[in-house]
Structures are given as C-alpha cells and as structure tokens.
Amino acid sequence: MIFFDRVTKIYPDRSLALDQVTFSVERGEFLTVVGHSGAGKTTLLKMILVEDRPTSGAVYLDSTDVNHLGRQHLHRLRRKIGSVFQDYRLLPNKTVFENIAFTMEAAGRTDEDVASDVPHVLELIGLADKFWNFPHQLSGGEKQRVAIARAIVNQPDILIADEPTGNLDPINTSDIVQIFQKINDLGTTVILTTHNKSVVEAIGRRVITLENGRLTRDDKNGRYAL
Amino acid sequence: MLTNFKRIVKSGFINFWRSGVVSFASIVVLTVTLFVIGGLYLGHAFLSSSLETIKEKVDISVSFQPYATEVEVLTVKQQLEMLATIKSVVYSSREEELANFEERNKDNALITESLKEVVNPLGARLNIKALDPSHYESIARSLENDSALSADGRKLIYDINYRKADIDRFVSFVAASRRLGVAVALALIIISILTVFSTVSLAIHVSREEIAVMRLVGANNRYIHGPFIVEGAVAGLFSALLAVLLLYPAVIWVKGVTAVFPERLDLVSYYLNHFSTLFFFILGFGVILSMLASYWAAKKYLKV
Fold first, then answer.
1. Domain made up of A2-219: CATH architecture
2. Which of A98, A205, B170, B183 would suit a FRET pair with B55, their CA atoms being 20 to 30 Å apart?
C-alpha cells in the first residue's frame, strides 16, 4: 500500500533527515516508527502527506508516486489519509463540532452526513458532551481525541500520527493508544511515530527504528530497541 | 457547488465575528482608507466646482467702434461661434451698453449731463467665453489680427479687453491644481491600498497555521480561500458604511471652514444629493480592495 523507495531528504541547511530509507506498509498494518528526536520520524510522515518532498527516491501510495502530484491535486490524496499531530493542530476559532465537520465539508460530504457522523465519532472517542467547546477550553487529552476524531471521520485508508502521545499523561496515553488499536482493528492502516517505550510495548505490532535518518531495524513484533 | 458556496459564506461571517480584535483592526484601517477615498471624491467635486465657477467669470470683452452696425457686429459674432474653442458669445447692442454705462454712473451728474448733450458714443460689445481658459490667448490673438472692416473700409473693433495676466495666472492655477490633485490623490490611494494590504496580510498571517492544517486535512484551495474573501467583503461592507457616515460631520466642518468663499460648492447638499453614488463608490472600492487583499494574503500560505 505504501512503499518508500530509497528516500533521502536533505534540508536546505544541509541536515540529513532521511538517508536511503526503503520499506513498505501493507493494507491494514499497524506500524510504529521509533527513534530519538531528530531521527527523521516526522520527516518520514511528511513525505507520506506530501507536506515535504524527498531530495531523492520516491514514495508510492498504492501505485501512485505521490511526489508527482501537483499542488492542486494534493487535497484528493490527503482525503485518503487522516493525520494526527503531537501539537493537535486544531482550528482555534472553530468548535469541536466545527473542527470535525470541516474535514467532512472539505471532502464534499452532505449536511446530513455531517449532522449524523460528527456526533457519532465524538461519542466514539468519549467527547459527546464537548460539541460546542473551543479547543482552548479542552485539556491536552481531549484535544488529541478531537484531532483523532477529525482524522477518522472521513474513514481514511491510512491514519498517520506524529507523536500523538507526546504531550499526554500516562492515563491519556493509554486511552489514545487503545483508540488507535480500535481504528486499526476496523481495517485502517495506522502509522504512528513515538519515542515512548511503553507505547511501543502496549501496541506490540511491527516497529521500524530510525537513527540519524537511516532505517536501522524492522521488527515484526513490537520491540523498542534504542 | 451551492452547498459549498453556502458553507464558505457562512464560515466567512462566523470567522469575521470570532476574529474579534483582528476584524476590528481591519475595519479601522479600512474605514480610514475609505474615508480618505471618499474625501478625495468630495474634494474633487469641490475643486472642480470652484474652478468651474471661477472659469465662468473669465471672458474676453470685445468693444466695437460706434460706427459698426448691428449687422456687422452680428456677422463677427457668427464667425466666432463657429470656432471650436468658443463656448458662447453674448451680444450687447450700443443702446444696452449706453444704458449699462448710465446705470453705472448714475451718481455722477457731470457724466449724466454730458451724455444728454451727445449722440451715443459707445459701440456694441461681444462677451466671449471659451471652453477652456487656456483658449483665451489664442482667441484674443486671432481677434487682434482680425481684419474685420466696415463697408467703408474702417476697422470695426475698438478694443479687446483681455486681462492676460489674470487669465494666464488662472490657467496656471487650474493646471497646477489638477496636477497637484492627481498627485495627492494617487499618493493617498497608493498609501491606502498598501496599508490595507499590510493590515489584511497581517490578519491572515495570524491564520497561517490554520491554513496549513486545512490543506493537510484535505481542503482544496478554493474552500480555504473562500471564507477569507468573504471576511474581506464583510469588513469592506462595514468599513464603507462607517466611512460614508463619518464623512457627514466632515463635510459639515468643511462647509463651515470654507464659508468665506462666496462661490464655493455647498458640500453638505452635494453629499446628501450624491449620497447613493458616493456610498456605492466607497462600498465598491472597499469591498473589492478588501477581497483582493484577502485573496492575495491567503494565497501566500496555501503552498503547503
């Protein structure tokens, strides 16, 4: 489903973020990417979302080389990918309901779909009573749940999450990990980056390890080896 | 399509309302800009009207010899009226000239008595108005060179009253006023547009992260751009209303200040009579400017 073919990314300041990274992800897989800060985890996710482009190599989604997509076509690719960020990146001037509805509306879903799916997904993540709250009125854990709800509401093929538990306490971390597992159980491919050993162990699925931009390990059964 | 349009418009209004201070700042800057633009509009009307009034007072007066017959003078009048540079030629007969002269000198017994002793010594007169003050010199020159003669070969024109210095000064004044007016208006318009662009740009800069997130969650450019443009239009609408209302006390003040000029345009009446034109001019300028600024500013951040 996703194939990284010798992807190298060198930033303008000459720092090497990814170095000849090659791996593939199958449909329905749960992949955890581990590595120290600066190892290239976020860059790797940015390549999938085409938030950034490789210096060399290619990233394929199904059979499409995503880097050959023009900027005007990216929104179609991104509708297939749900994204969750460490800093949540919710729209500050929109309520919880509107944040989630925005993703559906942007994808051209009908008002009826929005009215039925948003409450449903909020119930699923346990925030049914926070419809009309603004992001600044939520805790970190709640914000991350909203971000997850926004990422899954369009039922994407892939869910990518960049350090989604980085700002959360252990209880919220555990809740969020469970939500990701549920989403994966429903058939969505999940790619999650973390440097939290307990998260890797709790998930217990395939882990790839990045060190200084190089892929150094690819373990089928969740091992945190840093 | 229609659903998207409805969502964009709704989102634009909601964003405008929720952006609070940022929207307020945009409105303040836009209002000042539109006030200046409205002021230029009214200033142009005031200046044009004042120049027109002064222009109306300038003319060339051609006095004819007493022996020039009415037919001869009217022939000269007809020839003058055929010139493209001439707006009007008014004929005053010998009798009317005498009556005017007597009226002007009715308190002077010597003149009154003398006039009773002689045959009317005055000739007829033509008062000529040109389409533009700059034409007076050439008209005067052509009259001076005119070889209009009476039946017995004598010159018909006695005198050409053309205050060259005054008219030249006036022509220079009109040209300078126009040049200055255009320069000031252009400078103010450019400054205003740049100010609006900077303010709107700054307001949208605050939302750059938001725009990036919208791109990353799959929104297309039109769907992201749309609400910002609607926000711009709403800000333009409110600012136009405020600017046009603020101009009212301003024209009352200007009317008071310019009361010493007897022939000035009554700006208050002008404002009231041209309210809808002025309003739609300011509204159009404000809404289009604000929408363009929003479009341009948001575009910068859509490269994610």
1. 3-Layer(aba) Sandwich (3.40)
2. B183
